[in-house]
């Protein structure tokens, strides 16, 4: 039978040293002495006979081999954490707190009926509703800091159920220079004007989603602030249809026709980042969100109608 040379604690220490940029900050985070961390990592390297870290100045950097080992170690420590959380959920009837991360692109008016239905069955569980954007939503799934995530992004390796669809539209004030252009707006025209951007809630945002080519860019935290600025004839912004439909109807805002793409369609999914270790309350809320969704019934109805029509033909 194979006996491990290393311990989970050694791998957790290595992860902390890398994540916090060195031994000193990692020691403060773990509430351990810096010398104990040095000893643990040195012993880990000796046991494996592999150089994992190189210290340059006051910072520790991963070697090429260290990057591979660290990445695999995160799966190891996460699997152990999931096992322990699963055991805890098996031993308790109901989780005391449920965290749900909701991307701002999801129309929250669809969320409230599900929460109202869930409340009588919640058995006193505290519910934390955290609003997220872009990479912040993705990290809620990949880092599993939320029990349930409603997201228009689906990271590789995860599954979810579609519960809503919406679209993002470029809008500005009716008197903005872009609104006065004849015909569809060219991308070069957009690049010359101020773009309002909703702040990514991740600590390490990644600009890989959406159109972000304007040199002039203001970042705000909420759609409400973006709209307030737009109503003052400041900039343009991509906003969800459910946010702007009344403002477009009242001609308070102008929807920009853009050559090549005047909207970005989105499908929002409900995801359980750790499906095997979620508690009964999380599972009930997840199922309630799916049952309250009109997306699935519409989708299934469309499939049924399509099948029936094909059969008749």
Please provide a brief summary of the model:
The chain is an alpha/beta fold. The protein has 11 helices and 11 strands. Helix content is 43%, strand content 20%.
Q: Mind explaining what this structure looks like?
A:
- Helix 1 packs across helix 2 (23-30), helix 2 crosses helix 3 and helix 5 (111-118) packs across helix 10 (280-292).
- The longest helix is centred in the N-terminal third of the chain and has 28 residues, at 64-91.
- This protein has helices spanning 8-19, 23-30, 34-48, 64-91, 111-118, 135-142, 187-191, 223-231, 241-249, 280-292, 294-312; strands spanning 53-56, 59-62, 97-103, 126-132, 148-151, 160-172, 195-198, 217-220, 236-240, 254-255, 264-271.
- The strands form 2 sheets. Strands 3, 4, 5, 6, 7, 8, 9, 10 and 11 form a 9-stranded mixed β-sheet that branches.
- It is 43% helix and 20% strand.
- The protein folds into 3 domains: 8-90, Winged helix-like DNA-binding domain superfamily/Winged helix DNA-binding domain (Arc Repressor Mutant, subunit A, Orthogonal Bundle), CATH 1.10.10.10; 94-161 and 267-297, Periplasmic binding protein-like II (D-Maltodextrin-Binding Protein, domain 2, 3-Layer(aba) Sandwich); 165-204 and 211-265, D-Maltodextrin-Binding Protein, domain 2 (3-Layer(aba) Sandwich).
- With 313 residues, the chain is an alpha/beta fold.
